[in-house]
Amino acid sequence: MREEEIEKIRGVVRDCVSKHLYSSAIFFADKVAALTNDPADIYMQAQALFLGRHYRRAFHLLNASKIVLRDLRFRYLAAKCLEELKEWDQCLLMLGDAKVDEDGIVYDAKDGNVIDFDKDAADREINISSAICFLRGKAYGALQNRSQARQWYKAAIKADPLCYEALECLIESHMLTSEEESSLLSSLQFSPEDGWLSSFYLCLIKKYDIQSTIDAKFKKLENESGSVSGSSMITLANNTDLLACKAEYYHQCCEYQKCFELTSALLEKDPFHLKCTLVHLAAAMELGNSNELYLMACNLVKDYPSKALSWFAVGCYYYCIKKYAEARRYFSKATSIDGSFSPAWIGYGNSFASQEEGDQAMSAYRTAARLFPGCHLPTLYIGMEYMRTHSYKLADQFFMQAKAICPSDPLVYNELGVVAYHMKECVPLLFTVCLSLNFPNAINDKATLQNGEKLTVQ
């Protein structure tokens, strides 16, 4: 068969893939690979098998070719097959030996030399080495080695700032503190045309700065503009992801009604934006909107029955109507689906705390504090449990830990003031600091104590 005819069949394979006709793609790719025995055609056949979910066959084809030992693309695709098969140890073996330190710098395991991931600035493809680092992180995460997972995710985003998935895992799983997130972003090497991406990443990370600094970050990104095919200038001001970040910030500021209104508008525009959905659920919980929680839970379970978020939503509904045992069952189901879903762990602990089952609540909070070192809420709730049992010194220690992680949450200062009051220590300064944080709806001129007393701020 002539080369021109073979190239036409390759075109058929690419067209089948673009139309999601994977069985057809597999059929024609197999014939091309048989005719040429070219590594590129073998790789194309393996890709078609992978997309058609024939993971075991794709892995066998790649492994039998022996090219897998010297070609990163082959090795990566073979490791992706093992990922889909949940064979995590074999996945790591396929990716080869390498070490990573706390700064995300990768070393060759044999000679100890730093592995350089430089890429051509004109190349807009994501560096394959970055993808390999990310896959290593996923494998270690699945093996419950969160320390190694964190380091490999950092290596992935450092190898190529376009690898958003690595940053998403670090942020969503609260693997880094606010300072560590800022330090990581400042170390990334963005190309000149990616200034907007640097600004966007700054909006994604923890929003623990003072209000003016956060507002400046959003304003800078909203002013970023570009043009499409010579048309008028456009901006990111109405981008759904950016507005979801802003809603998250409103929730952080205790502006629950404002947050709920924004997320409601966003979900009208994009009903399946899951990050926005999570913030919407949180705001509805704070507002006691059980009807909205019920509707959201029904829709999520119908559309995403295998996602932790869906069962978390069911738990939120039951928690809102004070059926804590039922809430606990669904929060537990969410954690069993995705052990790295922090809201479910917090909800699970709160469902015990609401019934004054302190030991079980503390166990859930401690698990969350261990899994999510960048999140201050587990530590804060541990302090609250200690305060409920009048262990004020221990409570104070955990409140101070929460303050170190998140120095801008008014609830932390409120709890510090409450425990200082019970320990007969001076508290007006704490509440003055709290009131100066620019959270207008968080705390007014009085702080409500857990036992129902009120302390007037001097």
Fill in the keyword field for this structure.
single chain, 458 residues, mainly alpha, Serine Threonine Protein Phosphatase 5, Tetratricopeptide repeat, two-stranded antiparallel sheet, 6 strands, 3% strand, elongated, disordered C terminus, TPR_rpt, repeat, cell division, Anaphase-promoting complex subunit 6-like isoform X1
Question: What would your notes on this structure say?
Answer:
Helix 17 packs antiparallel against helix 18. The protein has a domain of 86 residues: Tetratricopeptide repeat domain (Serine Threonine Protein Phosphatase 5, Tetratricopeptide repeat, Alpha Horseshoe), CATH 1.25.40. The strands form three sheets. It has a two-stranded antiparallel sheet. A two-stranded antiparallel ribbon has the order 3-4. A hairpin with a 5-residue loop joins strand 1 and strand 2. It is mainly α and 458 residues long. The C terminus is likely disordered. The protein has 24 helices and six strands. It comes from Camelina sativa (False flax). This is Anaphase-promoting complex subunit 6-like isoform X1. InterPro entries: TPR-like_helical_dom_sf (IPR011990), TPR_rpt (IPR019734).
Give unreliable regions as ranges. 227-232, 439-458
Query: What's the count of strands?
Result: 6
What's the assembly state of these chains? single chain
Please state roughly what percent of the residues sit in beta strands, choosing from under 5%, 5-15%, 15-25%, 25-35%, 35-45% or over 45%.
Answer: under 5%
Structural class label: mainly alpha
Radius of gyration (CA) equals: 26 Å
CATH fold description of the domain at 373-458: Serine Threonine Protein Phosphatase 5, Tetratricopeptide repeat
Largest sheet, spatial ordering of strands: 1-2
Taking the alpha carbons of the first and last residues, their distance comes to 91 Å
Architecture per CATH nomenclature, i.e. the level-2 architecture of the domain at 373-458: Alpha Horseshoe
Using the coordinates above, name the CATH class of the domain at 373-458.
Mainly Alpha
Overall mean confidence score, pLDDT: 85
Shape annotation? elongated
Largest sheet at a glance? 2 strands, antiparallel
Q: What is the number of helices?
A: 24
Helix content: 55-70%
N-to-C SSE string, H for helix and E for strand: HHHHHHEEHHHHHHEEHHHHHHHHHHHHEE
CATH superfamily of the domain at 373-458, by name, is Tetratricopeptide repeat domain
Keywords: Cell cycle, Cell division, Mitosis, Repeat, TPR repeat, Ubl conjugation pathway
Pfam families: ANAPC3, TPR_8
TPR repeats: 308-341
Protein name: Anaphase-promoting complex subunit 6-like isoform X1
